[in-house]
Amino acid sequence: MIPNASDALFWLEAHPNCLKGIGRGIERETLRIRPDGFLATTQHPKSFGSPLTHQWITTDFAEALLEFITPVYNDIDHLLTFLRDIHRYVSNELGDELMWPMSMPCKIHPNQKIQLAQYGSSYIGQMKTHYRQGLKNRYGALIQMISGIHYNFSLPLSFWKEWAGVYNLQDGKEAISEGYLQIIRNYYRLGWVIPYLFGASPAICPSFMNGRESTLPFERSQNDMLSLPYATSLRLSDLGYINRSESSLDITFNNLSEYISSLKTAIQTPSEEFVAMGIKDKNGNWLQLNTNILQIEDELYIPIRPKRMTLSGESQSDALQRRGIEYIEVRSLDINPFSPIGVESEQIRFLDMFLIWCALADSPSIDSMGLAFTRQNWNAVITEGRKFGQTINMDYGKTKYSISEIGHRLLHDLNRIAKTLDSLSQIPHYQHVCQHLKASFKNPDLTYSARFLHKLKSQGLKSTGLSLATKYRTQLSQEALEILNNHHFINEARRSRIFQKKIEIKDKRLYRLHEMKK
What we know:
There is one protein chain. By secondary structure, the chain is an alpha+beta fold. 46% of the residues lie in helices and 10% in strands. It has 18 helices and twelve strands. Strand 7 (219-220) and strand 8 (226-227) form a beta hairpin. The longest helix is centred in the C-terminal third of the chain and has 32 residues, at 486-517. Pathway: Sulfur metabolism; glutathione biosynthesis; glutathione from L-cysteine and L-glutamate: step 1/2.
C-alpha cells in the first residue's frame, strides 16, 4: 500500500518541538497581459529595477514573464503577506497591464515574437539570455511561458537533531542530505496527490498548440478552448515542462553523490539532437549555450529538486557536494486561479504535512525503472485523475488502489502530523485542512481542477482569465502594504540597478585586462 510511517508518527507525537522553525519560501511566476487578454509586448518595467539583481521581482524566460521571490520565513501568514505585498505593489505599477491568473498561457498571436528576458551587458547577464535562447530552440517558446508556484521547504536543525542525531549542520550534512533524499523518493511515489488536489490547468488556449501535435484526446468547446474532461494539471503533462532527453538522464535519488554525478554527466554529455542544432548560427548569434543534454543544471525539469544556496560563481551541484542539501524545491503546484497571489495557506499547510510525512515514512531506494513507473502514476492523475474509479498502481503494478483509498489512508497519517503541528500554536489550522481536503478524495468534483474547469466551460478561458485578472488587480491595488512599503520597493529597485552596473563595470575592466595581456 503506502509506505509505513506508524512508528515514526509515534516518535513525532513525542517530540513535537522538533518541528519549530520550518523554513518556507515561495517563487510565483505570472505573465503580463494587455487589457485585451493577449500577451504584453512591453519590456520589463524599469520602475521594478534590474531583474538580474532584484531580490523580489525578476523575470523568468521572457520579458513578459514576471517572477516574484519571497525571503525564507518560518511563519506562513508572514510569508503570504510578503508575497501579497509584492503583488500589491506590482498591481499599482503595471498601468493598464494585468497579471494572468493561470498556469497555462494566455492567447498568443501565431506570429508574435516573444522577447527573451534581458539582463544587461555583463557576462552573467548575457549568458542568462543565451540560456533562454537555448530553451526556446530546444523546447519552443510557448512551453517556456507556462507559469507555476515553486515552494521551498526546509526542516529545522532541531528536527535533524532528534530524528538523525545531528548536532551541527556541517558534521551532519550526510545525514541531513539522506533525509531530504528520503523525502524526494516518497514524493515521487505519492506526490501525485498535489496535482490531484491542487492542479488547476485542465484546459488550454488553442494558440498554445500552434504547430504542435499531441495524442491527448482534447475536447474543443464552443468558446474556443481545448480541455480534457478529467485532467488536473496539463502544465505537468507531456505538453508542459519535461526534458525530451529524460530517458537518457538516468538521475536517481538514492544518495547524494550519485545524484550529483548523474547531474554533472547530463551537463557534460552531448545530445545528438542538440549537436545537430549547433551553438551559433552562421551570423554568430547564439542558438544555445552548448550541445549537451542539459545546458546548465536549472534545465533539469523534475517535480522536486534538492537545493543549496550557492556562493558567488559556484554551481548548484558543487554547493550540494561541499555542504549537502539545505532545502527542497517543490515544483508541482499550478497557479491557484482562486487566489489573487496564486497560492493559499491551505496548500502550504498541506505541503508541510505531506513533506514531513515523506521524511518519516519508509523510503526504500528507487532505481530509474522505479522512477519511470512512478511517472506513469503521475501521468494517470495529470490527464485522468478525476475519472470515476481511477486507480494507482503500486509495487510495480502488482497491486492497484483507488485514489480515494490512498487518500483516505494518507490523510489518516497526515491528521496525526496536523495535531502535532497545531499543538505548537494551539490553533487547529492543519487539522482544518485535513478535514476540508478529505471531501476532495471522496468527491473529485471538489478538487481545484474540477471547480475551475466548470468555470472555464461556462465563461470561456479568455473571459475567465481577463475577469479574474481585472478583479485581482482592483483588489490588490486598493489594499495597503503591510510588511513592505513603497520606499522599500523604490530603494530595492535603485540598489538592484546600481549592483547591475557594478557587475558590468567590473566585467569591462576584466575584459580590458585580458586584451592588454594578449
